[in-house]
Amino acid sequence: MASSMCHKCKRPHRRVSPLVEEFTVQGTQNGSGPDAALDNFPAIHNNLCPSEPPPSPVLRRFPSLSNSTFGSVESSSTLAEDDDHGGSLKDPEKNIVQTRAPEVGFFNSALAKTRLDVFCKYSKTLAILCVFVLAVLSLFWGVLFRVRENLRHATIAVVNFDASLSPYQNVEPVVGPFVEDAVRRELATQQYPLGYKFVPPVKFNNDPFAVRLAVHQERYWGAIIVNNNATALLRQAVANGNSSYDPFGAAQIITNQARDIESYNQYITPVLLRLASDISFDFGRNWTSQVLTDTSLAQVIYSNVPQALSPGIGFSIFNLRPFDPPTAIPAVSIGLIYLIIIAFFSFGFFIPTHMKFILPSTSSPHPPLKFAHLIIWRYFSTITAYFFLALCYSLVSLAFQIPFSRTPPHGLSTWPKNDVADNANYLGKSTFLVYWMLNFFGMSALGLACENVAMLIGQPWTALWLVFWVITNVSTGFYALELAPGFYGWGYAWPLRQIVYASRTLLFGTNSKLGVNFGILAAWIVVGTVLFPVSCWVMRWKGVRDKKKLAAMQTN
After folding, report:
1. Do 27 and 67 contact (CB within 8 A), yes or no?
2. Which 8-state DSSP code applies to residue 100?
3. What's the predicted TM-score (pTM) here?
4. Is residue 104 in a domain?
């Protein structure tokens, strides 16, 4: 053994092995054997270094130097001899070679229990995923399951002003009754008709513009209007040969595409255009027959106005809120999915940064931050991140020249006097700031829910939560719940729906419910804020529990 210095007397101990051999011989001569000699070794050492045990560094250096180590003279002598020969003395614990177990086949009997455990856990996980897919994806498919049956909820106001006001109230109406009869036939013959509703003109104060306003305010999905002078102008055209007669001045069809571009493009506008075409065709055939058999009308006169015979009448189409430009589609539909995803994944990006407060590095040691202070920091840093991420999201729409302005309904130069709400909420150049705040509120509502759930359920279940959160928000936000089964009534309170409808108001000037939209988003934020410290505590508790379990496993 290499020479060393005594920690008390400071005298060098050059060799240990002769000392061991000497007392081994003595023990043998006394009949006590090697074990007895080794038991006397500490007493002899105390004579050389009185009443002081070996210091702890020696024990740490040689953790196996215990009674069990000296139980064999051969092992001690061997260590001493290695030292005398200049060999390197190594820690006995480091000499233990962990032999890797040989690999076996999948069906080896040694893996029988493991195979059973793996199959059970695999089957359980697969069952959970299958049930989740069936349940959650059904929410997305189900929102469109009964659209055709629910088209009756897409109410279309049919308003007949024909010959109802001065100076045409004395004219026998022809156009108005024919249009009403055609709509009734539509209701009777179509399997899935729209919700046509005959409304008397007095309900709109005999004002066609009030009908447009009602559609704009989303009291109706659309309107069919027969103008007050429809029959009078038609009769004058065939009687007097008015070549400037325009058949499309007889009636109007009012739509509001920006309210829900999907529903209008697929279910409402095509049906109304087809109905208008059928009415014009049928009316032209019947009206031409009447004119030709009416001897009081001169052929030489009405032959100058062929459009007054066929089609006779037509429908002017007014789309109060066109969905334009196309770049606005992401801002009110698919693009909002990324608002959820960005809010969700920001949690994973910032968690390592937050953990620096409680897990100091070797290069920057420090005491851990108080848990309450950590919660406060995490919350405000998260909200700040949402604030700037929402700004970047909003700037993308601005960069692609989406118009942040609102104009009066189509055909009106100014807002009607009775449209007090829209006049009061006209935002002008400040629309973009409101749009930014809308996205900030929306991201906070969506993101805090993601943060809380991620802390509560942990991995890998957060992935399932993201799928659920996206599907439920998309189903209730991008599609008309009026046309969905009644089960989806909860969707009126879901956060993404508020962002979609408020964005349509800001970008296209649809009916304003900004107060309701911001209020619901604020409620989500409040709930998320209240749950945030609870979720943080649960996350910490789960971490401590897992560490205790790991420590118990290592101990066993």
Report:
1. no
2. P
3. 0.73
4. no
